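Retro notes, structure queue

What went well: the backlog is down to a handful. What didn't: a couple of records were mislabeled last round, so from now on we paste the full input next to the output in the thread. Example, using tRNA threonylcarbamoyladenosine dehydratase from Blautia luti:
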Amino acid sequence: MQDAFSRMELLVGNTGVKKLSRAKIAVFGLGGAGSQVAESLARCGVGSLTLIDHEKITLTNIGSQVLALHSTLGMSKVEAAKKRIRDIDENILVHTYETFYNEETAGMFELRSFDYIVDTMGTLSSKLLLISRAREGRVPVISCLDIGNKIDPSRLEVADISRTTVCPAARIIKKELRKQGIRKLKVLYSREQPAKEKLFRRRRTMVKKPVEGNISFVTGTAGYLLAGEVVRDILSAGNVSHS
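Corresponding output:
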């Protein structure tokens, strides 16, 4: 009998479909890449998605974010994502947190309950905190680094952070993680030089990066690549999930 995932089953088999249906995944950040990750995972029939973002959809998001439509302007990104996911597969458990991830809110999340964590947040301090907490909980994490001011999606690449080049964010994160004894981290980054002069300047407080230009086919491709990594890792892993 055909269902929404019949064609995917031809690729991954019934066992793969069942693995994905048991997977519990958290997506921190629902911008251009993060929103595409969440949608792509939903279209793979994952069992549970936890979505974290504190922002609402604005007019400037329409050019690069799948959640952004004139009909969704003013909605919180997590609620827009939940509504869209429900329309894809009403059986997926969707948990939403309209909050900013930092030291004050990190205690809201039991990271060990997830099978995989996707970090697409734009704030360095939040990224570093999440990566550190995920490592403590022994939970796989993939982090999306700076893809702003890029126009060539073919230059996007998944690699260990130790093998990254060009990306200023990678250099900063690499240095900070070494202080914590963390030397390995799967990341998505761009090998493309920024379209205009940089941009990602480190601030003492390591708060949000300056506003950057972005374009739909770069952010969308980034989301697809991240989702692909998550799905392939889950399919190749042992039994999921954490109960």
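Agreed that this is the format going forward. Reviewer comment attached to the example: The longest helix spans residues 216-236.
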